[in-house]
Amino acid sequence: xxxxxxxxxxxxxxxxxxxxxxxxxxxxxxxxxxxxxxxxxxxxxxxxxxxxxxxxxxxxxxxxxxxxxxxxxxxxxxxxxxxxxxxxxxxxxxxxxxxxxxxxxxxxxxxxxxxxxxxxxxxxxxxxxxxxxxxxxxxxxxxxxxxxxxxxxxxxxxxxxxxxxxxxxxxxxxxxxxxxxxxxxxxxxxxxxxxxxxxxxxxxxxxxxxxxxxxxxxxxxxxxxxxxxxxxxxxxxxxxxxxxxxxxxxxxxxxxxxxxxxxxxxxxxxxxxxxxxxxxxxxxxxxxxxxxxxxxxxxxxxxxxxxxxxxxxxxxxxxxxxxxxxxxxxxxxxxxxxxxxxxxxxxxxxxxxxxxxxxxxxxxxxxxxxxxxxxxxxxxxxxxxxxxxxxxxxxxxxxxxxxxxxxxxxxxxxxxxxxxxxxxxxxxxxxxxxxxxxxxxxxxxxxxxxxxxxxxxxxxxxxxxxxxxxxxxxxxxxxxxxxxxxxxxxxxxxxxxxxxxxxxxxxxxxxxxxxxxxxxxxxxxxxxxxxxxxxxxxxxxxxxxxxxxxxxxxxxxxxxxxxxxxxxxxxxxxxxxxxxxxxxxxxxxxxxxxxxxxxxxxxxxxxxxxxxxxxxxxxxxxxxxxxxxxxxxxxxxxxxxxxxxxxxxxxxxxxxxxxxxxxxxxxxxxxxxxxxxxxxxxxxxxxxxxxxxxxxxxxxxxxxxxxxxxxxxxxxxxxxxxxxxxxxxxxxxxxxxxxxxxxxxxxxxxxxxxxxxxxxxxxxxxxxxxxxxxxxxxxxxxxxxxxxxxxxxxxxxxxxxxxxxxxxxxxxxxxxxxxxxxxxxxxxxxxxxxxxxxxxxxxxxxxxxxxxxxxxxxxxxxxxxxxxxxxxxxxxxxxxxxxxxxxxxxxxxxxxxxxxxxxxxxxxxxxxxxxx
Length: 916
What we know:
Oligomer: single chain
Radius of gyration: 37 Å
Strand content: under 5%
């Protein structure tokens, strides 16, 4: 037999007759079973996983390995090469068992209707494999497995009920991380280890299914999971659970969803944090169990016979529910309940919690009345809504079921009818919720309390209204009556649904600005940031395009607003990029204007270089364009024939880009005295501002050539300052007001305020910033301008200070994320506003002093993102956590850029152990 990777060497199998017999069995299996190939792949992954475990009880494989090893072969290298050879008999035996339809049905039945937590929950799997492979010890080993290819196959077998015809393909899919690693990769790693002593460690090949980004993201999530588990003792998180600004609940849910495909080391790391992190039952059940377990630890054993008298009401009801359904619980659930004293015997003697039904109904009705007073409609109380600590949503659901079963409603049901007539409609509650929200929004718009745009959470309103107009005749008569209250009748639904929808939900301002823009430019392919007359038209149109796609995907119809926008521009929502549409519109406008001036010319010959390049690309890529793009290009004179025969106009001879840029920079410096130009600066048609911004970015990344940097420094020594460019621009505006120093009077209020901010934060400024200000005569104690008179009106203290104190007491700093909320208060946004006021010189002195006492660096003179990264680095060090690659790269970047950092930044880095 020839083994791969052995250089063509033939291995004798005289000492391994079971391998020869396995080959015959394998041929027989391939002839008789249609799934033999898939079963063999799964079995091969299972035996390769067993081979990697190196169980000490295994005796047959080492004997077979020694019997087949050629003379003179390296034992370690031979163990790599002979993996598939040694495990081949067991692989064929296992594949024969997996391919058996009767065996798969037995496994599905042995699960008892439950998905397994470990293989011990499916007793026939470990016991049968131990018997078939003649390894009694293997039964105990496999019973404890909660991960691996065999567990994944068993899980899918039970989930698909033995692999039915529809789900059979899923049964034979081996996750990428659980597939056996190719022998070539393993052998290459062995050879690298052998040569490492003389040549150093070569670059190791990355494993399949692994990436640096994914590993770093998992390490960060695992660190937050450790933090959460240390505080709560488990990982049974809710979906919206966050640790700081990290969405831990979503991360844990994603790991649970892909648990079968996780690499073994990741699954082991999560199991170390919480052995029950991935359970085959509800996470909500697990959280309830943890509450009951904590109660037992604090108050002692449970008293099931007396109805769990010492427990919380919800905990007691949950415990009694487990007792009533004890026989249908998962075996592992019963084992967990036994740990807190709730055995089968105790469950049989359990009694329910005794409460006053009348008092409970009165409390629920009062809660419903308060909910309607606040929200206006009981249909908004969805099933999982908890109001004032009461599970109002679940209670209302139970009352609706009760009302449908009773011929005559009870007294409390009549009270609910009086509170909200449509609390239990004969149509779906989702319909009632949408109707109420749209009606409330329409009323607010009529009263001027709401803007004429789509509010938050209204993504599906227009789709819903469109469906109601389309199927108006099929609706319940009372539904038609309710729709009439918001202006939708049989006539309006049939004649003008789009206008009614726009009137109800509001599109007036957006359409008005779109109409104005289309009249001025001839199209609606606006950039994302377009804000004509202060209205965010670009974002509004982008939202309408997204709504149109969602509406078409959900209903197959046309988005109501699309009809109105298509009347302004038929190509307002093209299937190609908006940039292409803008360029086409520019060429068309130039072509039309040139045609009018040249009496029939095409108008494209004298286009500037940018549009000429665009036209050249369209001719080159004509065959790959959309048919509708072909039709549009035909309107500007480009057809398939002209595209093939086109000789695009050669661009005019221009000087080198660098020479042009430097010449424009010198011209700007000669006129203004600096080149700290905004990104929007255009000089003689050259985008000087964007070019300078790109050079600054390359300089920060260490990619700018020294020659170019020296040329720019010669023009302006502070063309790329280590402080924000906005500060440099404000400095030059101040310098331009006088040539011989800053006057003490006749300064604008904005410049006076800016000077006072610099004086108050003098010690936080960069030494070079201090030198520049001193050259203008600005010192910490210089009197410049007149300080505005203090306000005579007293304002209440902002509630943000109390939340800031609570956050600082918990975290030790005031550098939260922008979206951070402290007890429901938007602390992150509030601090952003205070920083803006402080930089503008309008922040109250009392507020500034209070924030500085909580965190001296709450408003650093360097970028805020830098300070947040430093806080993360400091927290990682203090918590002895594993360093993510991003933080390590950041620390290395600070060392390489040490000379350009602010002294305060250098001081903070030194405290965390970062030195140049």
